[in-house]
Amino acid sequence: MFSKYFSHNDYLLRLTNYVRQNTWYNEIKETFPLTDLLPFAIEESAVRSKTLPEVLTGKPHPILELHLTYPGEGRAELYEKTFECPCYFDQPKNLMKLDISRLDDKILMADEEMFKICEQQCKELILTREASSRVADKVQRILLNMPGQFPTMDEIASILHIGTRTLRRQLASEDMSYQQIVDSTRKSLALQYLDESRLSAKEISYMLGYTHVSNFRKAFKNWTGQNITEYKRSSCH
To answer: Is 175 in a helix, a strand, or coil?
Structure first.
């Protein structure tokens, strides 16, 4: 899943996982030339590749070997201490050799319903990205990438590297406002959660960034003309 959808996010690096001769490799490539910044990006990627699976599975996820295209002067000792594995510098590729047996580890908090919801959101993000370059779609894509968080318009503008006034003007040219996008995104997610999971209204309100469930209930009534109980009852028929 990680490999399938990773490339659709805006990262500095592109990761490719493959198995050869019963060995698991994670090859790291630049999305564009990073020059002197490459070591910093590789370090961040290697740390994430080691620690994230440990958090998800509760088991060690060692890097067996680390191969790097840049020189090791001033880095070799620290790298081997940090990653606890042999590190080879001035190599033709940046890649990590990983323990293939770890692929069988189970995710501790795996939930089939939540998996379906998250995968559906990933698919929708890809379709939105491919279908349109409208500013409103870019804003919605950011919101979908930040579940449970709904940043301010200033924060969204900063992510898009434009000024808030420019963002407001561009949205207005598309007959759209930031609040309309927020409301539309929340409505879409709320309906998806209600239709495809057994999450309570309180849990959904939290996932949509509401501080009180009453605010979510009021918003849902405005969106659909029904309260949550009525909607669930009608959707069952």
So the answer is: coil
Which residue in the block uniquely carries the two structure tokens 């379709």? 127
* C-alpha 188, offset from chain centre: 18
Read off φ and ψ for residue 62, nearest 5 degrees.
-75, 150
- Is the pLDDT reported for residue 26 higher than 60? yes
Structure tokens at 182: 């927020």
> Which amino acid is it at 66?
L
CB 186 within 8 A of CB 206: no
Contact 15, 41 (CB under 8 A): no
Helix or strand or coil: residue 184? helix
Provide mean pLDDT across the span 178-192: 92
Confidence at residue 171, expressed as pLDDT on a 0 to 100 scale: 95
Each residue's pLDDT tens digit, 212-234: 999 999 999 999 999 999 888 88
Q: How many CA atoms lie within 13 A of 50 on its CB side?
A: 17
Q: Which amino acid is at 25?
A: Y
Q: What is the rounded distance in angstroms from the CA atom of residue 185 to the CA atom of residue 65?
A: 43
Is residue 170 over pLDDT 80? yes
What 3-state class would DSSP assign to 103?
A: helix
Give me the phi and psi of 13, to 5 degrees please: -120, 155
Q: Are 29 and 14 in contact (CB under 8 A)?
A: yes
Residue 14 backbone dihedrals phi, psi, to 5 degrees: -115, 125
pLDDT in tens, 42-73: 999 999 999 999 999 999 999 999 999 999 99
